[in-house]
Structure formats: C-alpha cells, structure tokens
Amino acid sequence: MGYTAGPGYDRVTGLGSVDAGQLIEGWAADFSLSGPTTLTVNRGASSSGQVQVSATGDFTGTVALSCTVSSNLPDTTCQVPANVGTGAVQVTVANSSTSAVIVQRVPNKPVWTGAMMIVFVLTLCFWKRRPALKFAFILPLVLVVAGCGGGEASSSSGSSVQTTSTPPVSGSVTITGQAGALSHKISIPVTLQ
Question: Which residue has the higher pLDDT, 120 or 32?
C-alpha cells in the first residue's frame, strides 16, 4: 500500500512542489487595450483611430473585439476587426446624418415696420384733440417702430431664411476585448460635429 511519487511530492496536499516563478508568469498572462484619447466625426462622414492590443506576461492568445456606441450619438456606428492578436488595429466611427444645418423661415421685420408706420400716420391725421395724450401715444409707437429695424434678406415667399448649425454632440465608443476568461474595455470619447 502507498503511493509512489517523484521528488518534491507532498503527502499532505497531494501536490508536487510549486514553481513560484511559473505560477506568477501563468497568472500574469493577460492583455491590455489602449486607444486614442478622443475622436471627432463630422456628420455624414467617418473617422478612424488605432487601438493597441498589448500582451502582458506570456499572453499569446487571440482577442475577440467588439464595439458599441453610446445612445446620445445618433446615426453613428463603429467597426473593429473581430479576432486579432497583439498589435495595432483600426477602429472606424461613422455617422450617416445628412446635414448639420437647420433652415427656418422667419417673417420679415420690414412688414411689421410698415404696418406700424401706417398706424402712426393715421394717428397723426385723425386725432386732433388732447395733444399731450397724442404725444404719450405716439412716442412709444415711434420707439417700437425704430426698434424693429431693417429685416434680413428676404426670399420670394416674403420671409427671411435663417440657418443655424446643429451644435456638436458628445458621446463615447466602448471597445471590448475578450480572450477566454480575460476581458477588458476602453472607452473613447467621440465628438459629433
């Protein structure tokens, strides 16, 4: 009865001698992800940057990459290679919006100025009594007419065209790397202009 074992066998635990150097090296086999500090994407265009997959310890596996875009970046997608080793890989962030300009029609100010002038002239012509009351009525009217000022260049529809740019939107792209039980993520800030 009994067990035969080679040198370093421990009868209490049933294990052989532990090689601490190999144990630490085996535990330290991992990978890390790093990427650009920020990406800027114009609406209707794309932008790309490099993500670095680096090995630590004696990691030699394949890393499965995926990416997701935060919900506050409308019409935006991202792409990374599916399975990679260590090294630099390309991440591409694209936006499919068609325009960043909002066009609004605004009534021309000269229309209001002309209407106020007509009221002013009619008030002068037909209101003959109480000059002080007439002055108290006409002075604010003159100030309102003067404050209206000129209008913007008008279109054929009798209104002005006002264009404003859509303000930039900030969000992020999250890249996830998976290799067996190992998993790491990085988040890249993205500005959509």
Answer: 32
Per-residue pLDDT, averaged over 97-126, amounts to: 62
pLDDT of residue 82: 87
Residues near 167 by beta carbon (within 8 Å), at least 6 away in sequence: none
DSSP secondary structure string for all residues of the chain: ------TT--TTTS-----HHHHHHHHH-EEEEE--S-EEE-TT-EEEEEEEEEEETT----EEEEEEE-TTSTTEEEE--SEE-SEEEEEEEEE----SEEEEEEE-HHHHHHHHHHHHHHHHHH--S-HHHHHHHHHHHHHHHHHH---PPB-TTSEEEEEEEPPPEEEEEEEEEEETTEEEEEEEEEEE-
Cβ atoms of 77 and 94 within 8 Å: the answer is: yes
| Type of residue numbered 93 | V
Query: CA nearest 66: which of 80, 53, 85?
Result: 80
Task: State the burial class of residue 43 (Cβ atoms within 10 Å of its Cβ: 0-12, 13-18, 19+).
Answer: buried
CATH fold of the domain at 32-98+168-192: Immunoglobulin-like (2.60.40)
- What is the model's pTM? 0.55
Is it the case that residue 18 has pLDDT exceeding 90? Answer: no
49-60 pLDDT per residue, tens: 999 998 887 888
